Amino acid sequence: MENIQNKVVIITGASSGIGEATAKLLAQSGAKVVLAARREERLHTIVNEIKEGGGEAVSVKADVASAEDMQNLAKFALSAYGRIDVLVNNAGVMPSSRMNELRVDEWDHMIDVNIKGVLYGIATVLPTMREQRSGHIINLSSTSGYQVSPTSAVYAATKFAVRAISEGLRLEESATSGIRSTVIAPGLTKTELFDTITSPEVQAIANQISGLGISPNSIARAIAFAINEPDDTLISEIMVRPTALA
């Protein structure tokens, strides 16, 4: 993982699941990780664990649905390390339900976190990366960003959007400014994502299949692989899913 060493990596949604696993793996590989999430105490615990293992990490409380919070996150990273090499747009929510349940507040929340959060993250790092003429933006989509299933319409729409945003970013920036854009699409993974579900029907489905999920470490390794490739190599998309649900 020689190309990961000393890179400054911002990770959103870093207080658990894929974000936590990615932060720990990248820190073990020599990256300087900047953890961001809403649960400040949990972030402090993870930072301490990374430091105890010999890694380098800092954290800041941030809500990806707040453009101001995300701007402050970028300023914090620049103040701490002087540059930003990678952004992992990982934060997401999945309160799935059937359309006829009309859970409009939950639709809004998914749009705010899963789409606006990604855009706000890009907006915070793009000027710095363009000035550096290098950088890597990794956006977490989902297998739901490729195929819609009953109860997942709005969630899938947000993840389709992440793919579109990532592809547009790649087309606009990779050849001109050297900024790489990667989509990571996890299948069922053992994270806290199911905790955001309030629909009884969908929660019952989640309870039946949750045991088939793969470890967040599998997704973290995919992210690390994309980062570790040399600057002249762009990994545009990686899909990782459980063998049992393939």
Q: What oligomeric state is this?
A: single chain
Q: What structural class do you assign from the helix and strand content?
A: alpha/beta
Which strand order spans the largest sheet, edge to edge or round the barrel?
Answer: 3-2-1-4-5-6-7
How many DSSP H or I helices?
7
Radius of gyration: 17 Å
Low-confidence stretches: none
Assess the beta-strand content as a share of residues: 15-25%
Overall geometry comes to globular
Count of beta strands: 7
Mean pLDDT rating: 96
Helix-residue proportion: 40-55%
Could you state the order of secondary-structure elements as H and E? EHEHEHEHEHEHHE
TL;DR?
The protein has 246 residues and is α/β, with parallel strands linked by helices. The protein has seven helices and seven strands.
Explained architecture:
Residues 7-189 form the Ketoreductase domain. The chain is an alpha/beta fold. It has helices spanning 17-28, 40-52, 67-81, 104-132, 153-177, 200-209, 216-228; strands at residues 8-12, 32-37, 56-61, 86-89, 135-140, 179-186, 237-240. It has a seven-stranded parallel β-sheet, sandwiched between helices.
Throw out a few tags for this protein.
48% helix; SDR_fam; KR_dom; single chain
What is the secondary structure topology, with strand pairs?
Layout: E1 8-12, H1 17-28, E2 32-37, H2 40-52, E3 56-61, H3 67-81, E4 86-89, H4 104-132, E5 135-140, H5 153-177, E6 179-186, H6 200-209, H7 216-228, E7 237-240
Parallel strand pairs: 1-2, 1-4, 2-3, 4-5, 5-6, 6-7
